[in-house]
Backbone:
């Protein structure tokens, strides 16, 4: 996966609580056996009308947010299915950072394994960022190394992240290759439990 | 110090631990299916990696398989996904129950049925409903495809230890109230994210009295409460269920295994990070009316009003849900008419579910406005049901009797609810578009689904059941 550290750009607000992975990528697109090409189907049911034309009232079809790499969402983002097609679709579309008050566990894991930075911020900061991003297209600056986001003022809004996942994201490491370094321990465990 | 089953299973599987890092956990059983595995096998191929323990892996085809005209998959993309799994299993030596194999079925139905699922095991699958296996006292959870690849190549996973939560179901359930109603009531009461970052153990009198099938229904929907996993301490019922299963040893080896299994049960006096309680007498047959599994109520009640909610975000969520569902605040649940009934899915497609639904249906006729479908959870369940004549009861009433698979739970195959139509479904998710674009899903128990099929609208099934002494 690709490493991620600093990034700046406008944030796309998507103000729906408990946004599930069935909405992020509907099941009819899960039949493909590739990891790529899911971006066209991201939020398909909301992004397109029944005849397949773009739904102008959906935020991703607003030209002001074109090219945005940051998504700001509400609590329990990514709940439901374990489909990794959800982060694949987000990444393929161009989102590299997702900011929300909380994420569903499996979705959170799936993001970090694909080089997407999921940022948990307190509810008030997220509400404020959604408001600001809806009213004006704010330039948001993100720094993973120093764990803060910043927009408008000098004020830095800090966030927490597990140091292990932070290291993985900063370096874009292949987790399986890392785990191979524990071959001795794995073999010992297997021997003991055989 | 007394320990919970969660701590016992976790600690027993730590391969490596270091401060500031997640634990490296050993995985005892890896279940696979066609939808979330192709990219993982492809990753192995690209990096010239092998499957470390094919003997601890087991694959089947369930999500995408047709439930009629089994051999004829018309969609070329679906067909390719199915054949890809067969090729991958062959290439990497992973055992596979192909869609025509007698062991085939929904992955969470066949694991327990074959005795692959056992107390004290760590079990993963690229499917969020892996929590089902927790019914046996296994630590079972869903993973993404990157993690599937990681388990295939290392038989381990890096996992941060979740917090522990007890959900206690106090008292005895009333007549006609099922395990499905209990889990829907739990999610409705505590919310779809109450379990985030936690592993839940279900305890209490009602849980102890449940059969293994009922326990599976409860644990299955742990993910709908946001939990990483959900489980139940093993007891004699667990042992009895597993005895004689294909992958369970017999004789003296069984006795030793049995004692080991039972030793995983939570110790008297063990404590949890959090305990939640629900009283059985609060629970009646449930119907969801919204677009997430917490949006449901007892059959005797009505859809809430926005003004019932204090939080603005809750009021907005209600309005969005009711717009999608084309329902109005204050509508009595029993007045909602349905056009489809689906009895199936990893939540409710086991033989006991079909027996209970057949009991309601027997001698009656499906309402003329309703298309009703029974999809057994596995080949074996289907055969057993046919042996008992259940298929005749369903077919004579006007139900369609299908081959096993995930089917209309997620509508990846041809079993789709048309736009704007309403389905009483025994599955686990009522998200927008889940059963088809624009389709409206109401989650219920098998007996409630059966009753709705007959009446054409939701009814209190307790009025249709005869009381057995």
Residues:
């Amino acid at each position: 996966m690709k490493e991620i550290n600093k990034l700046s750009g406008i944030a796309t607000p998507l103000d729906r609580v408990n946004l599930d992975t069935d909405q992020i990528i509907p099941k009819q697109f899960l039949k493909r056996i590739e990891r790529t090409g899911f971006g066209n189907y991201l939020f398909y049911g909301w992004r397109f009308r029944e005849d397949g034309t773009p739904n102008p009232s959906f935020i991703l079809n607003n030209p002001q947010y074109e090219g945005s790499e940051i998504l700001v969402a509400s609590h329990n983002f990514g709940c439901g299915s374990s489909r990794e097609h959800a982060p694949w679709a987000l990444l393929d579309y161009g989102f590299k950072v997702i900011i929300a008050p909380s994420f569903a566990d499996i979705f959170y894991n799936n993001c970090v394994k694909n080089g997407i930075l999921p940022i948990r911020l307190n509810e008030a900061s997220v509400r404020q960022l959604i408001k600001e991003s809806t009213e004006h297209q704010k330039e948001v600056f993100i720094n993973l190394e120093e764990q803060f986001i910043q927009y408008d003022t000098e004020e830095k809004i800090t966030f927490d992240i597990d140091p292990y996942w932070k290291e993985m994201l900063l370096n874009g490491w292949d987790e399986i290759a890392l785990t191979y370094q524990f071959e001795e321990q794995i073999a010992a465990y297997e021997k003991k439990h055989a | 110090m007394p320990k919970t089953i969660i701590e016992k299973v976790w600690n027993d599987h730590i391969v490596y631990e270091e401060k500031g890092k997640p634990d490296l956990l050993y995985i005892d059983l890896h279940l696979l299916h066609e939808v979330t595995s192709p990219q993982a096998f492809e990753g192995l191929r690209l990096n010239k990696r092998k499957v470390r323990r094919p003997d601890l892996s087991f694959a089947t085809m369930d999500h995408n398989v047709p439930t009629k005209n089994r051999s004829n998959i018309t969609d070329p993309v679906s067909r390719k996904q199915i054949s890809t799994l067969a090729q991958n299993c062959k290439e990497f030596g992973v055992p596979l129950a192909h869609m025509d194999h007698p062991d085939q079925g929904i992955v969470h139905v066949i694991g327990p049925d074959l005795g692959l699922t056992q107390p004290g095991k760590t079990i993963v699958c690229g499917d969020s409903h892996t929590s089902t296996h927790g019914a046996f006292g296994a630590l079972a959870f869903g993973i993404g495809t990157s993690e599937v690849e990681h388990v295939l190549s290392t038989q381990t996973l890096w996992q941060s230890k979740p917090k522990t939560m007890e959900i206690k179901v106090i008292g005895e359930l009333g007549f006609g109230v099922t395990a499905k109603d209990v889990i829907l009531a739990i999610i409705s009461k505590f919310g779809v994210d109450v379990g985030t970052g936690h592993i839940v153990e279900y305890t209490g009198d009602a849980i102890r009295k449940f059969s293994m099938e009922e326990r599976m229904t409860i644990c299955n929907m742990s993910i709908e409460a946001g939990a990483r996993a959900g489980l139940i301490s093993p007891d004699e019922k667990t042992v009895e269920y597993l005895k004689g299963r294909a992958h369970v040893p017999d004789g003296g080896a069984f006795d030793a295994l049995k004692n080991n299994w039972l030793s995983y049960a939570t110790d008297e006096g063990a404590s949890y990070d959090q305990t939640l309680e629900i009283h059985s007498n609060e629970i009646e047959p449930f119907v969801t009316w919204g677009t997430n599994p917490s949006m449901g109520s007892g059959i005797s009640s009505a859809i809430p009003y926005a003004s019932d909610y204090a939080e603005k975000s809750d009021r907005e969520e209600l309005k969005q849900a009711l717009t999608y569902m084309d329902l109005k605040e204050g509508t009595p649940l029993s007045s909602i008419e349905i056009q489809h009934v689906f009895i199936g899915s990893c939540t409710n497609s086991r033989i006991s579910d079909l027996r209970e639904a057949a009991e309601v249906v027997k001698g009656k006729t499906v309402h003329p406005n309703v298309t009703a479908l029974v999809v057994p959870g596995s080949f074996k369940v289907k055969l057993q049901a046919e042996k008992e004549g259940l298929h005749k009861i369903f077919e004579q009433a006007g139900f369609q009797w299908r081959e096993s698979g995930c089917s209309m739970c997620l509508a990846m195959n041809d079993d789709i609810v048309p736009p704007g139509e309403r389905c009483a479904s025994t599955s686990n998710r009522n998200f927008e578009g889940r059963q088809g674009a624009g389709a409206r899903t109401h989650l219920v128990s098998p007996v409630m689904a059966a009753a709705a099929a007959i009446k054409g609208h939701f009814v209190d099934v307790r009025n249709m059941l005869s009381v057995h002494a």
